[in-house]
Amino acid sequence: MEKSKSNKSKTTQKKCKFRSCCAILPTIVVLFVAYMSYKVYDVMRAPEMPDLDLDEWWGPPSTKVLQDTSIKQFKIEFSDMMLKDLRSRLSDYQRMKKTKNMDNTAWTYGVNVEWFQTFVNYWNTKYNFTERLKYLNQYDHFKTNIQGLGIHYVRVKPKVADNVKVLPLLLLHGWPGSVKEFYEAIPHLITPRVDHDFVFEVVVPELPGFGYSDTAAKPGLSPAVMGVVMRNLMQRLGFKQYYVQGGDFGFLVGSSMATLFPNEVLGFHTNLAMVLAAKPLLVWALGSFWPSLVEDKFTNRMFPLSERLGFYMEETGYMHLQCTKPDTIGLALSSSPAALASYLLEKFVIGTNPNEKFNVDGGLGRYNIDDLIDDFMIYWVTGSISTSMRIYKEWVRNFPVENAMHNTPTAVPTWCLQLKYEIAYLPEFMLRWKYTNLLGVTPMEEGGHFAAFEMPQVFANDIINAVKKFREFQIKK
Ligand SMILES: *[C@@H]1O[C@H](CO)[C@@H](O)[C@H](O)[C@H]1NC(C)=O
């Protein structure tokens, strides 16, 4: 006892030699902890919801006085002149001396030239333009002016008996998508089934700058702001309340609609649920110390973190380019259909299943080649590749608004289809921080980033199942 006491006094004595330090150190620690706590609080708290102008004019200012709010029928056309020009450019590519791939590199250095030559040959000689044009026009197309932009969309009404409830569903594509992405899924969505009493009327628009929809005349039309345009489109069509589905950029647009218009969006379904907010990203990073604590079942979809970061480093160079100088790469791709297709095909390879880049066909056998070419035709004929890529630039430029969307929770009932090779994954509990009424997720052991395109039946079934759950939830409420 005695001894320890004397020891203690000794230490005190010793410490007091540094008296000034003794006083300052705790102060510094307290200040540091206070500062860090504030920083963490600052990062975690939801930024204020932006005040978006619901009537902002995105077309050329001179067109504002003449806005035509009518809805006009529309048809996709392949003119003879365009076809002749396209064929001659494809033939130019076929004649060109090509850089050969190195041995056994498949798609790891980018597009596989050997496979691609066969593809171009198919496009130029086998792809039936007449037949595919008919296919593309099988649904009713329309155009209407929203906030200064001519918006192109497909609208399909189901033919059903009176006792079947018809629910409006907005389907939002991403990049490099178009209305075409949903063509094979539409029949599944508009056909009544015995096991439920509803069916969808689908509205499939092309986002501003994509395909036949006009591009903004000024900067600022980021995905969240496009959500306003899409909401106004639904209002124009007479839908006060509706369901929304989106993947890729369509996810960002749709998620913003659920955040901005929770009284209009009846339910939100997505095949890419990612919350780009500090809290989930921090927990993801910290989770690398004990991955199974964060995600037990699909651990390898998030960890090892170094592997995920390596994947993003290797596969998102295009994104950096499009987030910064979309018009430069866009101009290059607008000059040659082969260049356009090679750039987009590589995205389909990596997005569908990145492991397929080690195979010569890149796993593209999962698609019908005609379906892919249809999509590229829409980009080529409209010359919209540059303007479609601007969405990336607007997305990063408009950070405060986009960030607020990720950080503001929404109570709109939500469901997420989680395909195996999707580019990003978050577990349910983290998604719930943003989607407080996430009613469930559907994890799959196959499929990739382009759900509607690659697995139309699975995609449609999951929407139907989700909407069933949304309706039960609303009744309970
Ligand atoms: C393309 O399709 C049309 C319409 O289905 C058909 O009449 C025509 O013979 C086809 N052309 C070729 C070259 O197969």
Describe the strand arrangement of the main beta sheet, using strand numbers. Answer: 1-2-3-5-4-6-7-8-9
Mean pLDDT: 93
- The class by helix and strand makeup works out as alpha/beta
Helix amount: 40-55%
What name does CATH use for the topology of the domain at 138-282 and 399-476?
Answer: Rossmann fold
Could you tell me the number of beta strands? 9
N-to-C SSE string, H for helix and E for strand: HHEHHHEEEHEHEHEHHHHHHHHHEHEHH
Unreliably modeled segments: 1-6
CATH top level label of the domain at 138-282 and 399-476: Alpha Beta
Superfamily (CATH H level) name of the domain at 138-282 and 399-476 = Alpha/Beta hydrolase fold, catalytic domain
| CATH architecture identity of the domain at 138-282 and 399-476 | 3-Layer(aba) Sandwich
Any idea what the radius of gyration is? 26 Å
The end-to-end distance, rounded to whole angstroms, is 67 Å
Q: Which ligands appear in the coordinates?
A: 2-acetamido-2-deoxy-beta-D-glucopyranose
Number of helices: 20
**Share of residues in strands:** 5-15%
* Shape descriptor: globular
Q: Give the biggest beta sheet.
A: 9 strands, mixed
